[in-house]
Amino acid sequence: MITRSNLAEQLREYQIRSKHGWASVSFFSSTSNLTSSRVDVAIFVIWELVILAFLVFSAVSLYFKHLRLAVILVFITMLLLLCMKITKQVRLARKKKRRMLLPLSM
Questions:
Q1: At how many degrees (to 10) do helices 67-100 and 38-63 cross?
Q2: Angle at the Cα of 26 (from 24 to 32), degrees rounded to 5?
Q3: By CB atoms within 10 Å of each CB, which of 25, 83, 85, 101 scores lowest?
Q4: How far apart are CA 58 and CA 23, in angstroms?
Q5: pTM over 0.70
Q6: Spatial distance between the Cα atoms of 93 and 85, rounded to a whole number of angstroms
Q7: Which residues span the membrane (predicted)?
Q8: What angle do CA 46, 47, 52 make, to 5 degrees?
Q9: Is residue 80 within 8 Å of 51, Cβ to Cβ?
Q10: What is the percent of the chain with per-residue pLDDT over 70, rounded to a whole number?
Q11: pLDDT one-digit tens code per residue, 38-64
């Protein structure tokens, strides 16, 4: 039988499990106050490293006077940044939807 104290205890346990005390090292993060899982942080750090690599490669290609290659690499970098933002918004929307499905009221 579900009682109010059992429900409050389950909610407390869920909040403890979902709370992470370490910070994201995300440079492009616009929402640093939201907690995210380790997998999310790892994925976005990898995305950011790839974006940084493309920016460095475009700077090197500009140094060697390959303007077309530099423009292509900057364009790919912007597409990756856009994909990263869209992916983050989709994940946050799914997480909010899951939280709304929790049985919080009796």
A1: 170
A2: 60
A3: 101
A4: 30
A5: no
A6: 12
A7: 41-63, 69-87
A8: 95
A9: yes
A10: 75
A11: 887 888 888 889 999 999 999 999 889
